[in-house]
Inverse folding.
């Protein structure tokens, strides 16, 4: 169990009245630090009031109220039951100080007092502030508390999130709302040793602050979570957070995806086995289609396109990370097309260069219609199916080129359309450039 460290003060030290600290470390009683003549010459400054603090994993910045006439201030930290000098601020107008070199997720107590200077150079100390409770933030390394697993029940009514624990007081859990492009808090796990939570879609479970349905923008959007450890000080007035770990990819329930794609997925499951090829080649055909500007006639040429080694390696890595052990090929294709749709950015500057279409969209997560649909063509080839990749120009698209992947089963052509958010279909009987217009096979 990882718990936040706590610095405990001795009772006697907590109630002591303090005055000048000798060149050594400890605060000495007022009677020993101020002579009678000095006291008569210069009035002691009033007691300092510490107002606030900020901090990170290794530092605390204290802020206090300015004391009229003060020549400076001294900061003390509770160490082994005694308040010891941390620093002296030799300017009365300065009302803050940053204490560095502290341990993460640890409570610290501080005191501050002001001093004035007499005409003869004597230092006269005021009364120390009340002990002030602070805490440092949890360690900022996001790998220390990264999300390790997301899973859901078959009905997708509840989702279980698991993560690495770290030294802290608790964890804030966030869910990404893709429609509004913002992260929303959905749970507050008030237990540093707890490394998982099961959240419900339509009601609140233990630690949950919102039902997931209030944030989750549609089942096909996927669950993308963020986690942020925090520490609270002993006074309970301040909470310091570590950096938020945000999952780079959403989790999808495969059964829910099947419902979302509906008839397209049912058709794919039924027809795909018919397209399996024995001794499948390591290439697919790419058709380049054009239109005669004078006659409007459409014609095409075809070339062999081999799947690159970079794409094969990327596919193996992607499959290991994402596919379930008992998934059908139809489920794998459906999942991948949806994943491309939700995780890719449009390659406006033409910089995608990971070595192949599938590598571009899963490694760089970057592409255009050629990469999106070329990745599906490569995937079909790797899996042992005979699909083809099509570039076409047609009046219906005002003569600009576009790419898609198709599969011929019998005399019918079924089309895949992969793209970024808002643009995709899975498996439809569709052939904008008729088979009779394509290059002969």
């Amino acid at each position: 169990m990882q718990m936040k460290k706590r610095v405990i003060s001795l009772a006697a030290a907590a109630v002591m009245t303090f005055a000048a600290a000798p060149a050594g470390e400890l605060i000495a009683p007022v009677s020993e630090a101020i002579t009678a003549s000095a006291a008569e010459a210069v009035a002691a400054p009033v007691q300092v009031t510490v107002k606030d603090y900020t901090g990170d994993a290794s530092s605390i910045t204290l802020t206090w109220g300015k004391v009229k006439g003060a020549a400076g201030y001294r900061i003390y930290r509770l160490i082994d039951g005694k308040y010891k000098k941390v620093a002296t601020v030799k300017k009365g107008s300065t009302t803050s100080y940053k204490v560095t070199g502290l341990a993460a997720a640890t409570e610290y107590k501080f005191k501050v007092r002001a001093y004035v200077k007499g005409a003869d150079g004597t230092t006269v100390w005021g009364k120390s502030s009340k002990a002030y409770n602070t805490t440092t933030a949890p360690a900022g390394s996001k790998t220390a508390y990264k999300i390790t697993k997301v899973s859901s029940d078959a009905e997708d009514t509840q989702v279980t999130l698991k993560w690495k624990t770290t030294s802290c007081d608790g964890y804030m859990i966030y869910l990404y709302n893709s429609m509004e492009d913002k992260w929303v808090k959905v749970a507050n796990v008030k237990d540093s040793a707890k490394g998982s939570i099961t959240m419900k879609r339509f009601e609140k479970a233990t630690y949950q602050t919102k039902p997931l349905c209030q944030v989750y923008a549609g089942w096909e959007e996927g669950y993308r979570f963020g986690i942020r450890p925090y520490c609270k000080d002993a006074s309970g007035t301040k909470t310091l957070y570590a950096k938020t770990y945000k999952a780079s990819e959403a989790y999808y329930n495969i059964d829910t995806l099947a419902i979302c794609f509906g008839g397209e997925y049912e058709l794919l499951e039924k027809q795909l086995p018919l397209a399996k090829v024995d001794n499948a080649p390591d290439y697919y055909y790419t058709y380049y289609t054009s239109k005669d500007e004078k006659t409007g006639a459409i014609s095409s040429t075809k070339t062999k396109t081999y799947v690159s080694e970079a794409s094969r390696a990327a596919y193996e890595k992607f499959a290991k990370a994402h596919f379930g052990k008992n998934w059908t090929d139809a489920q794998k294709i459906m999942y991948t097309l949806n994943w491309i749709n939700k995780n890719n950015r449009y390659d406006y500057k033409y910089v995608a260069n990971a070595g192949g279409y599938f590598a571009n969209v899963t490694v760089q997560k970057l592409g255009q219609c050629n990469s999106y649909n070329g990745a599906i063509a490569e995937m079909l080839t790797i899996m042992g199916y005979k699909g083809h990749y099509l570039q076409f120009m047609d009046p219906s698209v005002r003569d600009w080129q576009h790419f898609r992947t198709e599969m011929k089963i019998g005399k019918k052509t079924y089309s895949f359309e992969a793209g970024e958010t808002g643009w995709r279909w899975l498996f439809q009987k569709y052939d904008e450039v008729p088979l009779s217009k394509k290059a002969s096979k």
About this structure: The longest helix spans residues 329-343. The CA atoms of residues 73 and 89 lie 5 Å apart.
